[in-house]
Design goal:
Its main location: membrane. By secondary structure, the protein is mainly beta.
Length: 705
């Protein structure tokens, strides 16, 4: 048996065996163990204590978000075992991977992300600044039975701060290397006490960038962004209305990539420290996001009726280099526009009886317009073109992909929790999703139109045993579902992308010890994939295309362990460990990939952190936070020819607090660890690669009242 198989099962069995000997509590996301017992989440669409839910969940409170310097999705994903986010060539495209299931470029994520209960319809509306956040919940494992198609590997719930009867607010200002600054502020309170409340928050951030372009003498990863959000809550008797509206505008560098040789027959281990950005064009991208939602609650004696309605819109456009060299050869124009309307109606029973349940219905209408263009270029010896409307770029397109995908989906779902005894609890859930998708190329016209309905019933069952109030053991089976779709019309792959189905088995425990001063989470899982998606790019002049194929059969076995302790007053230590053993079992096009590791998935992830609060005077405290993440080898391609070696990332933060004031210094990626954050294989003997962010550091001044 291979060494990492021994590591996997030895660690998992040891953790589960430990639970049978002594009761311990669960800590997630670096929260203090003593606080974890009382953390309330809404993972199952009702308020419950985190330690009582038979699912693997990592929760981040507002305090953890602040001291861990969490400003975007990537920041909290880095603190979650067996979940990885790898940036891609533009802001709204990234690979979100969990337990071996990944996001193909241009495809849907296997993790549903909800903002204040409203599902984000595309990745563009996920990868944005997080400000004025109350709580984040990361649910791993199949969540399709409650959250629907697209939640085959999990769900992320992000909750912004709601206004209340107290007038409160905050302001933050930070400055760091690369002339990077970030300003954020928010204020909320009552308009009519006990009945009408408002909160407004916003941010502004800017950076010249940290990754040099050696051809232009500038930084490739510059950005400038601002955003604003307003939230209004009205309460009248048993009725509550919660309205939210937000807008974000971001301008940034994109496609700061370079080219390396690639072959499916030769092993490549590129030295990322020597990768240079050499593009002769200042590649630029602009993304504008708008979202609004309305949540209505009406409390009855038997439970609560909830309606959640949301509308989201994203417009992205980018222009820049495609040959990624100092000579003017190829340029690219990419665009992504999405509009989506969501509506959900559900009834949540009260928690006073042995049977608790949630039943509901969901509807979504979505339109996605994807632009991928490679214009021809007439070189007249003048300055290189920096805009798509340059007259020298008006010849025939080498690639002119204009693809529209429309979807109309609906679902019915139910989640039932029944106490068989005082200690034994059975959860049964199921959701039926039906998603009708139509794709058409505006370049080719009606002949390119394809339509298909993807439908699936997604069951889930869990048996939880509360051995004591401080010890939970559970077994879970769930089926995940990710709807199929269509490749661009000019793709060389099959037009149809098959729907993904996963069968998931999990055993876990949540335990408490020593008056909640020590805690433990542990789980073992096995996943069987059918049609796991995989992306590759064909770079061949006029035949260039983006392609998604599916791995007919694959498996993933893993273990996840979270441990937290508070050994002395003021000190909290946390450690987590996750292993993923993903294997290709069948790939219809060839047998050469069978037995290979699943791409884009680290072999393992390890996290450790320490938080220490030390009084330095009667009214001043010093706070020290140190966190480290060890990320195992990642294969970037299905052939397992390109891999990054294990990497360790260290972050640190030290702050002085007095009253509501705080002055902090921080550093991210302290040791300046470098690796490939993006790898795009092609069928032309090359690959596009992008380096990760180097070390960043700065200071932050904040105040709250």
């Amino acid at each position: 048996m291979r060494t990492k198989y021994k590591m996997l099962f030895a660690a998992g069995l040891a953790a589960l065996a430990a639970g049978t000997v002594q009761a311990q509590t669960t800590v997630a996301g670096g929260t203090e163990a003593g606080d974890q017992t009382d953390i309330v989440v809404t993972a199952r669409m009702r308020s419950e204590k985190l330690k009582d839910i038979p699912d693997t969940i990592t929760a981040f409170s507002a305090e953890v978000i602040a001291r861990s310097n969490i400003n975007n999705v990537k920041d909290f994903v880095a603190l979650t075992p067996n979940v990885t986010l790898l940036p891609s060539f533009r802001q709204g495209v990234f690979n979100l991977t969990a337990r071996g299931d990944s996001t193909p470029q241009g495809g849907d994520s296997p993790i549903v992300v909800n903002f204040d209960g409203v599902q984000a319809p595309a990745l563009d509306l996920i990868n944005q600044d997080l400000f004025d956040i109350e709580r984040i919940e990361v649910l791993k494992g199949p969540q399709s039975a409650l959250y629907g198609q697209g939640a085959s590997a999990g769900a992320i719930n992000i909750y912004t701060k709601a206004p209340g009867n107290d007038l409160e607010g905050f302001a933050k200002a930070s400055y760091g290397n690369g002339d990077t600054y970030r300003l954020a502020a928010g204020v909320g309170g009552p308009i009519v006490p006990d009945h009408l409340f408002v909160r407004v928050a916003g941010f502004r951030r800017h950076s010249d960038g940290l990754i040099p372009n050696v051809t232009l003498g500038t930084k490739a990863d510059f950005f400038s962004a601002y955003g604003v959000r307003a939230r209004t809550v009205a309460v009248y008797g048993d009725f509550k209305a919660d309205a939210r509206i937000g807008y974000t505008d971001t301008k940034n560098g994109f496609a700061y990539e370079t080219i390396i040789p690639y072959s499916t027959t030769d092993r490549i281990d590129p030295d990322v420290s020597d990768l240079k950005i050499r593009s002769n064009l200042p590649s630029r991208e602009r993304t504008r996001l708008f979202s609004t939602s309305l949540k209505l609650d009406y409390a009855l004696d038997a439970g609560t009726i909830t309606s959640v309605t949301g509308y989201s819109r994203s417009r992205e456009s980018g222009f820049g280099d495609l040959d990624f060299g100092p000579a003017q050869i190829l340029t690219q124009h990419v665009g992504f526009r999405v509009r989506a309307f969501n509506s959900e109606l559900r009834f949540t029973s009260d928690g006073s009886s042995a049977l608790r349940y949630v039943v509901g219905a969901f509807f979504q209408k979505r339109r996605i317009f994807n632009i991928a263009q490679i214009p021809s270029y007439l070189d007249d010896g003048g300055p290189v073109p920096t805009r798509l409307d340059d007259p020298r770029l008006q010849g025939p397109f080498l690639l002119n992909g204009l693809d529209v995908t429309k979807s109309r989906s609906w679902a019915l779902f139910a989640n039932l929790i029944y106490k068989l005894t005082d200690r034994l609890e059975l959860t049964l859930a199921a959701r039926y999703d039906e998603d009708r998708r139509t794709a058409e190329s505006l370049t080719a016209g009606p002949v390119s139109r394809s339509t298909k309905t993807f439908a699936r019933l997604q069951p889930k069952a869990s048996l939880a045993f509360h051995a004591t109030p401080d010890a939970l053991f559970y077994l879970t089976y769930g089926q995940g579902f990710r709807s199929g779709s269509f490749n661009p019309y000019l793709s060389v792959a099959d037009r149809l992308i098959r729907a993904e189905v996963t069968d998931n088995y999990e055993a876990g425990t949540k335990l408490d010890l020593l008056d909640n001063s020590v805690s433990l989470n542990a789980s073992l899982y096995h996943i069987k994939f059918s049609n796991r998606p995989y992306y590759y790019f064909l770079a061949d002049g006029g035949n260039s295309s983006q392609n998604i194929v599916t791995i007919a059969s694959a498996t993933s076995d893993g273990v996840e362990i979270d441990l937290s302790a508070r050994p002395v007053d003021g000190l909290t230590v946390q450690a987590s460990y996750g292993v993923v053993l993903g294997r290709v079992k069948r790939f219809d096009a060839t047998d050469m990939f069978i037995g290979n590791d699943l791409p884009d998935t680290p072999d393992y992830t390890m996290n450790a952190s320490a938080d220490y609060r030390l009084p330095v005077s009667s009214d001043v405290d010093a706070l020290l936070h140190v966190g480290a993440r060890r990320q195992g080898r990642i294969f970037y391609d299905l052939a397992n020819r390109v891999a990054t070696s294990p990497k360790t990332f260290v972050d640190a933060r030290i702050a002085l607090e007095r009253g509501g004031w705080s002055l902090a210094g921080f550093v991210q990626n302290l040791t300046n660890e470098r690796f490939l954050s993006n790898f795009t294989p092609t069928a032309a003997g090359i690959a596009f690669v992008q380096p990760n962010q180097p070390r960043a550091y700065g200071i932050e001044l904040s105040a709250k009242f």
